[in-house]
Every structure is written in C-alpha cells, then in structure tokens.
C-alpha cells in the first residue's frame, strides 16, 4: 500500500508539471504568430533565419524580392508633392514567413508613388509572350483603394523621380476595390498608327479581388496569339482575347456616321398616331373622381370624437422653484391621450374606395402612322482614322515598373515582382516562393481560427489552464505537498498485525542471536497489552460484544 500511495503522489506531481509545460507550447502557438505543427518544408523555412526568395531560373527583365538592402538602390520614390505616403520594406505584421520582407504602405488616406527600372527595355516585337507576376498581402484587407502596378512607357521611365498619375504607361494590372468597384484591372494603352493618339483599352470581364489578409499571387499571361489569362494564386480566373474582349475595341470601325448629314425637316419618325376618326362617347364622364368615401362604412362603437389626441400629463408636478411672476402660469406638458391608443379619436370619416364610375380623361385610340418613314440614321462614310492591328500583343516598349496608388488601407504589402517572357519561368518561381508562403499562411490561419473558437467550455478550460500556467510553481508545490500528506496519513500508519504474524515475529525474535530472552518477553508483553487495548476499544464501541464475552467467562467458571 505504501508503494501504491507513493506512486500516486509522484504521478500527480509529474502530471501537474506536464500540463504546465504542454500549455506553454500551446500559448506560444496562440500568442506568437508562427505555427509549430507544419510539414518539414514549411518548418525549415520558418527555422531559417537567413531566408530570402530564390532568384528566377531563366530569362526575365525585372525581378524584386526586397530581401536585401540593395532594393533601395533600384527604387525611386516620386518627389511630386501629391505623393505624401511613406514606403517601408519590412516583414508582415500579420502571420507570415519569418525574414520574408516586402514593400509596404504605412498609412491610410495617402497617395503613393514609387518606381524601379527594368534591367533592359522590354520589346515584344519579336512575337514573345508576356508574363507579369507579383504578390499582394492586404494585411488590413482593402476597404477603398488600389494595389495595382503600371508598366511604364519608355519616355516616362526616363525620369522616375517625376512619376505622376498621368505618366504614360503601357499596361496596368492588379487589384482595385472601392464602393461598387471590385476588380482586378487589365488595361493597356494602344496607339493609333494613323492619328498617333493613345487610347486605354479595358478588359470587360475582370475578376473580383479575393477577400482576406493572406498573400495572393496575381499573374497576367499574354500570348503571341493575342489570347491571355489572368491567374490568382496560380489558378486561371479569367481569360480573353485582346481583339475581342476590350472596350473600346483595339481596331476602330471601318465606317462612321457622317457628321455633316442632317435629318430632313419633313422626316416622320412617329410610328403611331391618334385615330382622327375616333370620337368620345356621349356618356363619358370625365368629372368623376378616382376614389370616393365608402358608403357602407360604419363608425366604430369605440370611436371618441370629442377626445383630444393629446392631454396634460396627470403625473407632472410643478417644479418647486417655479415663479409665476417670472415664468408665467405653469402648465403640465402634453402626452398622447391613452384613450386614443388605437387611433379612435377625432373626427371620424369613412375610408375611401375605388370609384366604379371613374373613367378618367378620354384619349383616342392609336393607329399606325401612314406617313412613318422609320428611325432616321445619318449616312455612313469611311472612317478616316481606321486601321487594323492584328497583333496588339506586340505592346509598346516598356522600361520600368511603377506603383502609383491612393488607398484608405494601410499595410498593403507588395513582394516578388517578376516580369518575364516565359510562363514556365514564372510558374517555377511561384512554386518556390508563393506556394511555400501560401501553404504556411493557410496553416497559420487554421491555428488562429482554432484558437479563436475557445468559447464556452473551451474558454473556461483555457482560463483554468492559464491559471495553472501563471501559478504553476505554487500549484506544483501544493500538488506535491498534498500527495505527501496523502502518503503520510493513508499509507504511513502501520496496519494491525494478525496473530500468525505476531507468532512469526516471536519465533524470529526467539531464534535471533541478537535478542535476549528478556527482550523477547518484553516484546510479547507489549503485543498482548496492545491486543487487549484493541479489544477494550472494540467492546466500548459495541456493548453487545462485551456482554457476550462476560456471559462466556461466567459459563467457563461454572
């Protein structure tokens, strides 16, 4: 028994300490922003204190990951006074991969302008694909503002410090959300070879901006057959063709309305006219109103015509400091008459009903116009600005990437920009960067959602375990002390030896060379006295046993 109680005591101590240590790990998961329960790939990324995005493998004209300080030598902040927003390169404030930095806007309600040149001019005249790809993390979601980018035309790229909202660009791509606007823009500027004027072409089926604060990857892939895909998080969400899915279209119409053509004065474009032979009937009464009082209505029995709608408040009391000479005669404030709660007071009038005699103003019936010539249209003439561009995928040369936005949300984070002519290069790069980050954020979000569901019983248990954590040393000591007391009180008191055990002890004592006969006799006497005390105690608790023993002794004496 002693061994059992001692084992229970040790088990309680170990369990108390284990509970505290286990909760420490859970609190770390909950309070910090990094997940422990992840697969080996993500765990290695988290553990790597020198993480930086890998470089693209293959051709590209622009790449930026912001994972080293050299980014500041490439990016130029606009000095235009309009752009009062502050840029910063740092790690995300919401859960993400450690040491993975990005370009962030720091304040809401600001204009932001920044740009970086390509390592070489992007010229697509050789029938190459175009891939524009970058990540956006909306750390506070996107209430109103943009997170799109612009690929600048050669002239604008020559003076990035003077970047403005009207700086010429070739392609604008990325998320924009405010009010009814919720789209991922794809706009390109196209030059009319006849007039040399530039015109914006807007994709007419833009996808919506994904909600939430996770990182999202935006990819635009334009092929040399004029088809294109818009991908979000490596999945195609919208597709189209440069020649078919833009407003206004790339190519203007061959003919246009003649601006000098005018509609003749005698042109009749009314298809119907009133019948001149139709006459108003003699019994047509235009004086009848559309509604009349209901002649069958009866005033309700509970209607109170003499009751006012409002009465003086019977519970109102004149203020003690009211002075009639200065304040005038005091009058109680008015309240709604409680007798009129059902709207049954005042002058009663019957409800109105539709007038069965009402016909309204008479109008002659309409007939086809015999003089009708149809809808007039100006004649068509050849469009002097007409051209036909069958290869709009050969965009104008581009030399820089710019972020020129206004936003009501702070914390927008840009990362891993890539401009290339190979979709395989972009796909490989996203697999080694975004996909790792995306999987990590999904696990982090799952952990956060699990922690946020600690309500009811779970919340109570969390609070209990938090209490154990806070006072774990005191509770551990108390647990061990309780176990020790349990051992002393329940397992430390020796049990009463049985008669055979005492005989064995006597035999062992008698046979022992270390004990004298006097010692053995003394021990036996103490055992007999102890046995007698136990019997007397038992008889006091059970008087019937005492009477039985005395009756037995009397019988033996006879």
Q: Summarize this, please?
A:
The chain is 29% helix and 24% strand. It has 11 helices and 25 strands. Strands 2, 5, 7, 8, 9, 10, 11, 15 and 24 form a 9-stranded antiparallel beta sheet that branches. Strands 1, 3, 4, 6, 12, 13, 14 and 25 form an 8-stranded antiparallel beta sheet that branches.
Structure in words:
It is a single chain. With 558 residues, the protein is an alpha+beta fold. 29% of the residues lie in helices and 24% in strands. It has eleven helices and 25 strands. The chain has helices at residues 2-31, 40-47, 154-157, 324-327, 423-432, 434-452, 457-470, 472-491, 499-511, 517-541, 543-557; strands at residues 62-64, 76-77, 87-90, 102-105, 110-122, 130-138, 145-146, 149-153, 169-178, 181-191, 198-203, 215-222, 227-232, 235-241, 246-247, 255-257, 272-274, 291-293, 310-312, 334-336, 352-354, 366-368, 380-382, 398-407, 412-420. Strands 2, 5, 7, 8, 9, 10, 11, 15 and 24 form a nine-stranded antiparallel β-sheet that branches. Strand 9 and strand 10 (181-191) form a beta hairpin. The two termini are 47 Å apart.
Q: What share of the residues lie within helices?
A: 25-40%
> Which structural class matches the secondary elements?
alpha+beta
Radius of gyration: 47 Å
Percentage of residues in DSSP E strands = 15-25%
Give the overall pLDDT as a whole number.
82
Oligomer: single chain
Runs with pLDDT <50, length 5+? 15-50, 494-517
Number of strands: 25
Number of helices: 11
Distance between the termini: 47 Å
Describe the sheet with the most strands: 9 strands, antiparallel
Broad shape: flat
């Amino acid at each position: 028994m002693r061994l059992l109680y001692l084992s229970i005591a040790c088990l309680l101590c170990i369990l108390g300490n284990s509970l505290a240590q286990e909760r420490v790990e859970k609190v770390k998961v909950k309070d910090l922003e990094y997940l422990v329960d992840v697969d080996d790939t993500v765990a290695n990324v988290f553990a790597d204190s020198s993480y930086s995005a890998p470089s693209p493998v293959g051709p590209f004209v622009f790449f930026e990951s912001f994972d080293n300080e050299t980014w500041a030598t490439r990016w130029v902040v606009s000095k235009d006074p309009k752009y009062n927003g502050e840029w910063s390169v740092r790690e995300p404030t919401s859960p993400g991969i450690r040491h993975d930095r990005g370009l962030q806007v720091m304040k809401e309600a600001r204009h932001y302008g920044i740009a970086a040149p390509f390592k070489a001019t992007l010229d697509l005249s050789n029938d190459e694909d175009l891939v524009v790809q970058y990540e956006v993390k909306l750390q506070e979601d996107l209430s109103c503002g943009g997170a799109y980018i612009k690929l600048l035309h050669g002239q604008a790229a020559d003076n990035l410090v003077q970047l403005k909202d009207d700086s010429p660009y070739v392609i604008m791509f990325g998320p924009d959300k405010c009010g009814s606007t919720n789209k991922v823009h794809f706009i390109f500027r196209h030059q009319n070879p006849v007039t040399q004027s530039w015109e914006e072409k807007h994709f007419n089926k833009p996808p919506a901006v994904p909600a939430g604060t996770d990182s999202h990857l935006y990819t635009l892939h334009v092929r040399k057959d004029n088809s294109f895909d818009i991908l979000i998080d490596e999945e195609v969400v919208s597709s189209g063709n440069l020649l078919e899915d833009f407003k206004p279209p790339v190519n203007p119409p061959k003919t246009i309305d003649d601006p000098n053509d005018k509609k003749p004065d005698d042109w009749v474009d009314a298809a119907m006219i009133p019948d001149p032979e139709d006459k108003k009937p003699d019994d047509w009464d235009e004086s009848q109103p559309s509604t009349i009082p209901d002649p069958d209505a009866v005033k309700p029995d509970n209607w109170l015509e003499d009751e006012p709608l409002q009465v003086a408040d019977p519970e109102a009391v004149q203020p003690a400091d009211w002075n009639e000479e200065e304040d005038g005669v005091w009058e109680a404030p008015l309240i709604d008459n409680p007798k009129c709660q059902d709207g049954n007071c005042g002058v009663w009038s019957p409800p109105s009903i539709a007038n069965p005699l009402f016909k309204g103003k008479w109008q002659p019936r309409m007939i086809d116009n015999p003089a009708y010539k149809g809808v007039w249209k100006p004649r068509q003439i050849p469009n002097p600005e007409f051209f036909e561009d069958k290869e709009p995928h050969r965009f104008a040369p581009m030399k820089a990437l710019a972020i020129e936005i206004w936003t009501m949300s702070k914390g927008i984070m840009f990362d891993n920009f890539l401009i290339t002519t190979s979709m395989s290069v972009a796909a490989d790069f996203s697999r080694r960067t975004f996909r790792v980050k995306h999987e990590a954020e999904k696990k982090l979000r799952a952990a956060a959602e699990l922690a946020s569901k600690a309500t009811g019983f779970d919340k109570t248990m969390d609070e209990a375990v938090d209490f154990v954590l806070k006072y774990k040393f005191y509770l551990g000591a108390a647990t061990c002390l309780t176990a020790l007391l349990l051992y002393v009180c329940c397992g430390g008191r020796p049990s009463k030896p049985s008669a055979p055990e005492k005989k064995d002890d006597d035999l062992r004592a008698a046979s022992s060379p270390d004990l004298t006969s006097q010692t053995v006799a003394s021990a036996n006497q103490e055992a007999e006295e102890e046995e007698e005390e136990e019997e007397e105690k038992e008889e006091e608790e059970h008087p019937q046993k005492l009477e039985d023993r005395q009756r037995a002794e009397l019988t033996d004496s006879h």
